[in-house]
């Protein structure tokens, strides 16, 4: 019987003491390095980063070994293609020590609170109260509650592997990253990603919602940029009615998707684009 090769030392360092025992990885990795936070003194790296563009097919092979390796792969992109520091990943512009645990947060309560925050009047807002309410019509300022999990759906792993290939082919600057996380939803928190910092300084809140989407929609975290997030979705909404409920969650989670996304800037228009869409992309200004 051929035994699987153990994790190399630079990958074992990603785990807490004793948590790397028995972990294996048979997938050859390109040249890379562990990355620590530039602001937090720590012997434990936040993640491992490939030095160059992610090879085709690598994300899927690493995802398939997650159960044995404990390492969730991410396709990481920088703030700017011309950025020599490859921010925030290459220079360690991350804060894992400031994050709580995703399990400490109720995703339904978070979405409800964020909805109230984003639909409230703003003294600096250029919209009238009526115009602001129209953005989230027919719900207005009333939180409609979480979307119902759809029945059925495709294989989450196959959908995620396909999206990863699309990202590698369409964005040649992306690099492979590895994070010591039990599930993809937690990877952004473990890595100390601060992309949504203008809305929350604790990425564990984001991960709590991502956990819920993993469970309800077969979502998988695939790509992460400076302030962007790309998910594969095995069971997206299939009707406009169900898409409206999901759109409400997206607005609570990332209002810039509607406020600064594709016109017209309304929940209804955004929902139309969610029907049967197997990838969800978020951008925080």
Automatic annotation (TrEMBL):
Domain DUF4253 stretches: 175-285
InterPro entries in UniProt: DUF4253
UniProt region (Disordered), positions on chain: 22-46
Name of the protein in question: Uncharacterized protein DUF4253
Record organism: Saccharothrix carnea
């Amino acid at each position: 019987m051929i035994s699987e090769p153990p994790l190399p030392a630079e990958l074992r360092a990603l785990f807490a003491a004793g948590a790397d025992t028995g972990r294996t990885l048979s997938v050859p990795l390109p040249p890379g390095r562990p990355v620590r936070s530039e602001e937090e003194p720590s012997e434990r790296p936040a993640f491992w980063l490939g030095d160059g563009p992610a090879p085709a097919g690598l994300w899927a092979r690493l995802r398939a070994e997650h159960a044995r390796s404990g390492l969730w792969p991410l396709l990481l992109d920088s703030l700017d293609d011309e950025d020599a520091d490859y921010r925030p990943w290459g220079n360690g512009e991350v804060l894992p020590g400031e994050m709580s645990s995703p399990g400490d947060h109720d995703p339904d309560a978070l979405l409800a609170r964020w909805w109230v925050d984003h639909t409230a009047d703003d003294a600096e807002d250029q919209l009238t109260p009526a115009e602001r309410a129209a953005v989230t019509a027919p719900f207005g300022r009333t939180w409609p509650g979480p979307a119902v999990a759809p029945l059925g759906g495709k294989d989450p792993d196959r959908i995620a592997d396909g999206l990863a290939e699309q990202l590698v082919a369409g964005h040649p600057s992306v690099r492979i990253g590895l994070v010591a996380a039990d599930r993809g939803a937690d990877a952004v928190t473990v890595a100390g990603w601060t992309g949504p910092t203008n809305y929350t300084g604790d990425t564990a809140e984001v991960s709590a919602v991502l956990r819920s989407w993993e469970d309800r929609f077969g979502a998988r975290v695939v790509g992460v940029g400076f302030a962007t997030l790309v998910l594969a979705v095995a069971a997206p909404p299939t009707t406009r009615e169900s898409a409206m409920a999901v759109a409400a969650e997206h607005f609570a989670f990332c209002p810039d998707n509607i406020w600064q996304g594709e016109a017209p800037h309304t929940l209804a228009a955004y929902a139309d684009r969610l029907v049967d869409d197997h990838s969800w992309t978020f951008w925080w200004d």
